[in-house]
Amino acid sequence: MGKYMARSFTWLLLAPALLSLVYINGLLYPFIAPKTLLFRGLGIIALAAFAYLALSGHEFYWSRLRNKLAWLPAALLFVAYATSLIGIDFYHSFWSVYDRGDGLLTLTIAVLFFYSVLLSADRKFLWQLFKLVAWVATAVSAYVLVQWLSEISGINFTLVAEARGRLGGTLGNAAFLAGYLGMAVWATLAIAGESRGSWRKVYYVGAALQFVAIVLAATRGTLLALFVVGFLTLLYLAWKGEQRTRTSARVGLAGLLLFAGLFFSFREQLRHAPFEPVRRIASISLSDATVSSRLFIWQHVFGEAMKRPLTGYGAEHIAGIFDRVYDPGAILEQWFDRSHNAFLDYFVQFGILGTLLYTGLIASLGYVGATLFRRKEPLGVFLLLLSGTYAIQNFFVFDTAVTLWFLLAALAAALAYESAQDPANKETPSVMRMQAPRLLSYGVAGVIVVLLYPIVIQPLRANLLLADGYTYHVTDVDRAISDFQRGLSLNTYADIEYGYQAYTMYTDNQQTMLAGAQRVAAYRYALQTLTSNYERYPYDARTAVYLAHVLDSAPPEEAVDEATLRAVLARATLLSPKRAQPWYLLSNIALRKGDQAKSAAEREQYYREAFVPLEEYAAKVPGLAEPRFIIASLYFVVGDKVSAKKWADEGLPLYRGGTDVARKALRYYIAAEDWPNVRRFLTDIVTDNPMDYPVLYDLAKAEFLTGNRDRAVEIVQELRLKSPGLVETDPVFLKSLGA
């Protein structure tokens, strides 16, 4: 048993490299959740195997713990636990959620892998790690290429997931994919440099394929990282390289600068190129919506983090900071739990010490690489390039379990390799001084393996039940609710995700697609789940907003306590002051009363009451057009056309596009019979969604009313072909158009 375990232990430590290939349909977050659960499971099994081997007298390189660089992961883990214990909610910090899978537990597993590799790896382990990563990354890249071909050809290939937005491959997210491949490409080139004959060509082809996949992912942070690292490498070789290398580097440097110059010279034309990666890179500017959003987040999240620079807020509590600074006029994302900057994420969660330790881990890999490079070790330069790429790209994206494990495994293997290669170091493996009885070795390992049940099996069951219930949430409500209740009864960290999904299912589908007892049952389940989470996670603005929306959307059979709804909305506005939904829902309370009023005077009174939260919200977001158009529509309804025009005139110069805002603006301009502006907003809606034929027909009418009869006729002729029968629904307009 001991010999078999010892032989298998190395492959167990390498197994996480295979996780990049794993995704499982039938789970919620099929690309992320399986990787996280398997990673945690592999970590538990590796810990059990290590405990068994250590207690059984297996030899490990305990002397490597004297290296101060080896202390950094343990120090980071200690700081993470300490800051999370005094942070907002340790439970959430430890477990995280399905859609990210980070948290203290995942960090703990990654650190356990680090020390397992450090204490057991021989000089060959680093090469084994890089070789396995090279093959896996090449397979992932081939998958991405097939996914891209599927997207441009319209052919659905078997076992290849449909791309939704940018290509994410087997990692499901373009940023995750590019971040992983940005590191893996250097491992592949390292193996290629040491290979011979046909294998060398195979690995170089693999590296090229990985680079193509990075380009297809169109993640600007990784592309920028590779450009900077490549530029610095060529600059160094042009200065320090041997004669032939120096000449080649100078030519490459000149070519790179020429390429960059041409790119920026023709950037405006490239912004409209048919190839998305080119468009995304060419669109980089301070005025770009994504870039300005990121800069806003960094500035304001950093300001909030500076309120607790030493202790941070604890792991997995970036979302609360994001909600606090959220401004719909400056931020694209509705809900987010990362700042798109890994260093800032560590600062928010673990304070300045955690950030320095995380930076130290990356720098340590670069330092080991530089040390090996000075010794003429071929691996050294690739370790240096890997750490540099990881550092630069993580300034623009966020880390995942796959990339964090690769960083720590590479660092541990590099420390082991450096120790084995140091001529002054005569290290030999040694055993623990106290060898335990075999029964105790089995017992300790068995106790550790039991952790698979609460850490892997129960969350997996909860995920499966949530996914199954989601499948039937409209067609078989009773079965869906039964699944959900069984999943919640497992008492896992899935409860907050169950609440989010309950909200989405009810407000998006069940509220309108169900009726009678089924709709009531769906409402009660959503209400009960969100209420439970509202009480358990009082810091979560998302839960508060969702609960308020569900209460506001109660079916006619269910009475809603107005005091409860107002209390929930008060918490929501406190946790996220500039988020629109709570203010609109607060206004809805008065609007609903106004709609039910029996007299015109009473109706106007309630409508006037509805203005108060809307105008307060408009004052909080002076750069946002949407609330101003809503207020204008309401003033028009109560007959105050002067105030209505005033608010609409305020909103018009603030309008920056967006279908939702355009639709809200239309309500006022149609009522005011301002046909030029009606045409403008209808045009924007049709531009965003050319398949919205009813709106296109409305645009034809607006064109006619603004004197553009030829364009109206053109649209009608187009609709006769694309949506037969639609234009005949308004014979009066057709008659007017014909006249």
Which key terms come to mind for this protein?
single chain, 739 residues, mainly alpha
Which helices and strands, and how do they pair?
Elements: H1 2-14, H2 33-55, H3 72-85, H4 90-95, H5 103-120, H6 125-153, H7 174-194, H8 197-217, H9 220-240, H10 243-265, H11 267-270, H12 276-282, H13 289-305, H14 318-325, H15 342-374, H16 378-393, H17 401-421, H18 438-450, H19 452-471, H20 477-488, H21 495-513, H22 516-536, H23 541-552, H24 562-575, H25 580-595, H26 600-620, H27 626-637, H28 641-651, H29 659-671, H30 675-688, H31 693-705, H32 709-722, H33 731-738
3D structure, described in words:
By secondary structure, the protein is an all-alpha fold. Among the domains are: 73-120 and 285-430, no CATH class; 459-572, no CATH class. Helix content is 71%, strand content 0%. The protein contains 33 helices and no strands. The protein has helices spanning 2-14, 33-55, 72-85, 90-95, 103-120, 125-153, 174-194, 197-217, 220-240, 243-265, 267-270, 276-282, 289-305, 318-325, 342-374, 378-393, 401-421, 438-450, 452-471, 477-488, 495-513, 516-536, 541-552, 562-575, 580-595, 600-620, 626-637, 641-651, 659-671, 675-688, 693-705, 709-722, 731-738. Helix 5 packs parallel to helix 17, helix 19 (452-471) packs antiparallel against helix 20 (477-488) and helix 21 packs parallel to helix 23. The protein is globular.
